[in-house]
Amino acid sequence: MIKVGIVGYGYWGPNVARNFYQAPDAKVTAICDADQKSLCRAQLNFPDVELVQSYHQLVQRADIDVVAIVTPVSSHFDIAKLALENGKHVFIEKPFTASGAQAEQLIELADRKHLKIMVDHTFLFTGAVNKIKELLDNKVLGDLYYFDSVRVNLGLFQKDVNVVWDLAPHDISIMDYLIGLPPTTVTATGVSHFNSNEDVAYVTLYFPDNVIAHLHVNWLSPVKVRTTLIGGQNRMLVWNDLDHDEKIKVYDKGAYHDGMMMAYRSGDMWAPKVPEGEALKKEVEYFLSCISNDITPINDGHAGLRVVRVLEAIKESLKWRGAPVRL
Amino acid sequence: MIKVGIVGYGYWGPNVARNFYQAPDAKVTAICDADQKSLCRAQLNFPDVELVQSYHQLVQRADIDVVAIVTPVSSHFDIAKLALENGKHVFIEKPFTASGAQAEQLIELADRKHLKIMVDHTFLFTGAVNKIKELLDNKVLGDLYYFDSVRVNLGLFQKDVNVVWDLAPHDISIMDYLIGLPPTTVTATGVSHFNSNEDVAYVTLYFPDNVIAHLHVNWLSPVKVRTTLIGGQNRMLVWNDLDHDEKIKVYDKGAYHDGMMMAYRSGDMWAPKVPEGEALKKEVEYFLSCISNDITPINDGHAGLRVVRVLEAIKESLKWRGAPVRL
Amino acid sequence: MIKVGIVGYGYWGPNVARNFYQAPDAKVTAICDADQKSLCRAQLNFPDVELVQSYHQLVQRADIDVVAIVTPVSSHFDIAKLALENGKHVFIEKPFTASGAQAEQLIELADRKHLKIMVDHTFLFTGAVNKIKELLDNKVLGDLYYFDSVRVNLGLFQKDVNVVWDLAPHDISIMDYLIGLPPTTVTATGVSHFNSNEDVAYVTLYFPDNVIAHLHVNWLSPVKVRTTLIGGQNRMLVWNDLDHDEKIKVYDKGAYHDGMMMAYRSGDMWAPKVPEGEALKKEVEYFLSCISNDITPINDGHAGLRVVRVLEAIKESLKWRGAPVRL
Amino acid sequence: MIKVGIVGYGYWGPNVARNFYQAPDAKVTAICDADQKSLCRAQLNFPDVELVQSYHQLVQRADIDVVAIVTPVSSHFDIAKLALENGKHVFIEKPFTASGAQAEQLIELADRKHLKIMVDHTFLFTGAVNKIKELLDNKVLGDLYYFDSVRVNLGLFQKDVNVVWDLAPHDISIMDYLIGLPPTTVTATGVSHFNSNEDVAYVTLYFPDNVIAHLHVNWLSPVKVRTTLIGGQNRMLVWNDLDHDEKIKVYDKGAYHDGMMMAYRSGDMWAPKVPEGEALKKEVEYFLSCISNDITPINDGHAGLRVVRVLEAIKESLKWRGAPVRL
């Protein structure tokens, strides 16, 4: 039985706590939050779990093997460092850290102490991303042409981060997993209408082999959109995460050189059944099995670092209104 | 009765010819195309119009007041120059010219000879753009936050231009008309998968007052999308040009500062009736009345030049993978 | 504090129990279910509520004022009768009873003992139905022309009732509330593909003043549809209950006599904001206030009886392949 | 070369004329319409075709082999009878005749004179209906459960027929073709809001083997709907004729008996490519080849008669508010 302590019981913390609580191989022993109201909510939901107000106490407890850190990114490094120093495995919210340097330090520390880090890139455990990965691995789409993601809605503004740090880690981690190669150059544009944090932003990522990716993230859209287009040489797909019944549509469409001319192919469309089930549940169970069987998670510290490096490059490019930043 | 000669009877030429032909105040006297098959099609449709194979003949005819140029952009300058030199008004396909320098020369020539130029920015004459202009002018949206347009589909690849020169003139001319201010900086990214012409591209335009615009143009999309989001301080709208019945949806939604916090407003949605009718018909009739009444068209040579300048800046930025180009 | 006992903890029972549990003016004192597994689930969710296996015990308890009956319709009459005889108010699942005669007996009993009956016509407490009622009351649609509802999906088959008794009570109770008049004639058709219970059925209801209503209920549809069209003299509306953001669309469209000819009007569309919130919560709180303030609920026994009478007429008409049955 | 005369040049006539005109094996020699304005329009479109005002002249001409009758249904019988008596093949608008007795007389006459009748059930020649027929013939859906069609929109009211005679012949002819069996019983309900002709109607058709069909036709709907659900034992499909890109969706879903219980299957969805092309063109060419090769068309007089018999039964049932009428 792996014993888990939760740090942070705000918006997402209750979900992390619930999934560790219900996992057959884990036991949640303590929950920590600086806010008394959050602790009261934890009390109602998990009457048999101890509540503490300071994470310093929590990370030192002997009855804890894993610390799950579900706090704002600015606090990630300090808490994770302390947890690792105390010999605890770390499950940590995305984005991993506020800088690449912090991420490198945590990875090094975990390696030295033979501890696991899992960064909560939840989307990697959804039925949709798993199905797309399968289609790409089986060469159903053929060579990749582009990856285009739109993730927009009205609010919620975050005080301390811009719309990129809030929403783009989802897409960057998905891209990282699906494309399997790091981008070489990043370009980003955006503006802020209320304070210094961008609320609308556009990001282009250049990859090797003429693959291009683009993200549109926006806190000021009247409609919620969660749509990704993936173009390949043989087929193309549309993933609409808001479509309950037909999340992924694979189009038997393509463009190719036919001697001198471009030719087009347009055939059937096919919407494969996408397995349902809570992604976070699968992720938490996977993390527990990684610990038990000493396996490196796909979403380990290195994966987290790759995402943070792209976020840093975006920040730099945004400052210069789209100037390309090499990675 | 204004007498019109048409140069170019390929894809779009038949529509231009038909609309001048049916306009009460105009008479089409000659149609020119270098391709014999195109002339045969013209013959069938307009048995009473003279057909010529060289535009040099056409522009010198005494029975022509207006030359409508519906040819590839590379030929625009030569034909338009000759037409103006021969004292003819010019109706010309978008984009106006292959360079800003060419556009400036044509504008100067037309001014000197007191002739009209109209660049065929057809979208400015659609019910949808007129309705949006009305909403903006009446401050229904309030101060503008952003303009975001997606114009993607499968093909048709053009041999001599990239996807930006093919599709973006629509959006740039619409933006120019709706925003009413020139952009200050342009950033563009994209890749080519088949030859040296980009088939996927992303463009950001920075405007004064923190207004940002973005275009996504793509010849490799499995689905056709023609959607524009416009965010304003008071309301936001979605223009889906493929939705026959509810093209424009105005959302009574907004974000604003409420002291320290961001607050949101979410109310009714409203889809105003958008007038139908062929935009090109309205445009052609407007051009004829501009000539008769000596009025400068909204889509004159200067409007055409503004679009070409943005296209040139995009070309430059694309070369450097998104480096910002000041206008 | 009104004390509540719940009879039936299967599919819907947990929702009824939770809403009475959380209502400020109520206290759930006992839950009853014949199935031990269901009781275990109740135990987990409400550790402080007493569990009993027989409703005979429950309805006699002194610490119960209201019995909420959430069992299959075949058992409604016996349980409700016993509850009323023991002086308890009754909250009861739809359809009210298995026959009009049973409903009449319960209504008479409740009246005699000055007790309240509320039939759980949950939809009457949704934001959508309330908004439509408001539009009709304010004559926004004008005189009613028709009411057309489609409620189809794949399964779930019920053993003891057909698709009409399963799904149509929703629509019949909504119609009863919105139209405010009882139908005069009922016609119903349908077939069964697996046993003697219809899985596809169509129902027409004739009302006074040329108003017609129609229901399509189906357990064998590959897609889920929950759409109601309501046509009026001045405007028409579409209520798509599966559309999260634009549930109700009001069309400024109409048809009218213009002397000899029919004329049409086609204007804006308008999607009013529909209040969110759990309907069952509002219903339960309304029931508690009806008891406290001695008010007759809109969904009282008489409303339940009107629905049952229509269901009986449908059953009769189905037998004769659509023969009209007068009410 | 088969010589064709067209009787009726109103709403649909120009399409019939154009398709016979463009067919390689036919020549349109004369067009007839009682209305002078219609004849002027015909003159403009077909300057080389002779125009006549009375069909009596037209049907007697020696330079005519086929008479295409595109007039209101009330005139069908007289014109078709005269055409057949004069030895002409007949292409005739749907519905075939105003009564079954008329249809029988025309069939008998054509048979006796070895002439062809084709009733213009255009939908049988669409890519969508052909694809569905192919799916049914290949047992992709398995045994049929139901056929449900909705064909609603705002107007256009017809003076002399109700909404059933206007819209339902499409669905009845499609059903007749796809199901391949005549219905045994018909039930219909509806009301009229403006005159004695129903503007909203619902029709149920009972077929052998527990197959049921239902039509909803409506001239008073704020939205246009053209959707057919077809449920089968193995798979189910949705045909949305207004969806340009994904007209037909085949769902790998089903319900079946698993011993005592109902079980459900839910798998992929698949949208086969539906061939495009004008249905009327295919139909006209098919008719010409039926004449040349002495083949009986699938949409011959008998097919027309089957549709008229259903229409008559609907009329009868409507009168009695849904009373079942046996065929």
Automatic annotation (TrEMBL), chains A, B, C, D:
Q: Which SUPFAM superfamilies match?
A: Glyceraldehyde-3-phosphate dehydrogenase-like, C-terminal domain, NAD(P)-binding Rossmann-fold domains
Database matches in Pfam families: GFO_IDH_MocA (PF01408), GFO_IDH_MocA_C3 (PF22725)
Q: Which InterPro entries match?
A: Gfo/Idh/MocA-like_OxRdtase_N, Gfo/Idh/MocA_Oxidoreductases, GFO_IDH_MocA-like_dom, NAD(P)-bd_dom_sf
Q: Which domain of life is it from?
A: Bacteria
Gfo/Idh/MocA-like oxidoreductase N-terminal domain location is: 2-121
Its transmembrane ranges are none
Where does the GFO/IDH/MocA-like oxidoreductase domain start and stop, copy by copy?
Answer: 130-231
- For this entry, the protein name equals Gfo/Idh/MocA family oxidoreductase
Q: Which organism is it from?
A: Geomonas anaerohicana
Provide the taxonomic classification.
Answer: Bacteria, Pseudomonadati, Thermodesulfobacteriota, Desulfuromonadia, Geobacterales
